[in-house]
Amino acid sequence: SIRVEERTREGRELWEVVEGEGFSALFAPEDLCLIPFLPWFCRVGVHALKIEGRTKSSGYLAPVVDAYRTALDDLRAGRFRLKEYLQEISLGATRELCTGFFLPGRRRTVVPAPGGERVPVLALLEEPAGPEAWSVSVLSRWDQGTPLNILLPGLKRPLLQEYALEMEDGTRAATVHSGTRVVLRCADPLLREGIYLRAAAPAHRR
Q: What is the pLDDT of residues 17-54, one digit of tens each?
């Protein structure tokens, strides 16, 4: 792949060209992030937001949509916790966050995101598999014993530590991989169908 810049933005690499067999694809090396401007959107009467998602996984979208939904609910309640929303988005980001072409005068700024490495969403709970057991779809490599956060609406991220992983034939699993289905045995009452589990971020290991 090659990186290119625009004539009006010299010195900034704004596009990545990836050459395939018989075609080339253009990718932005940065992700558009406008959550700091939500208060302004609300003041001027914007009624709908489109969040990028066609090429993203459900494991990426779940916490991002929760961050935006929580931010809008917070604004309605008279508060705005920008650092917490950005922290949540940055945990799944693979590229730098920026304002893209949103600001006037072709002014582009980097959206400051809290530091820390990316934390993968590991699984989606699909249906009960027996008493205190769930059938789950694995989204990323998952090692038994990894501390987990349960992704609940409102940026609630309770810690889950006591659990066991089994293959569908009942054998215990030490490590499972993306694309497989396994059984999660856990008595936590917060678990329910449609909930995502993520490797616990350092700030949420409590």
A: 667 777 766 666 678 899 999 999 999 999 999 887 67
Token reading at 45: 């009467």
Tell how far CA 198 is from the center of its chain.
9
**SS3 state of residue 23:** strand
Prediction pTM value: 0.83
Distance set, CA 39 to CA 12, 75, 154 (Å):
29, 7, 18
Give the whole-angstrom CA distance, residue 77 versus residue 162: 35
**End-to-end Cα, the chain, rounded Å:** 42
**Distant-in-sequence, close-in-space partners of 15: CB < 8 Å, separation ≥ 6:** 3, 4, 5, 6, 26, 27, 28, 29
- Max Cα–Cα distance, the chain, nearest Å: 62
Q: pLDDT below 70 — which residues of the chain?
A: 1-18, 24-29, 53, 106, 115-116, 203-206
pLDDT for position 107: 78
Per-position DSSP letters for 112-154, written without gaps between them: P--------EEEEEEEEEETTEEEEEE-S-EETT--EEEEBTT
Residue type, 58: S
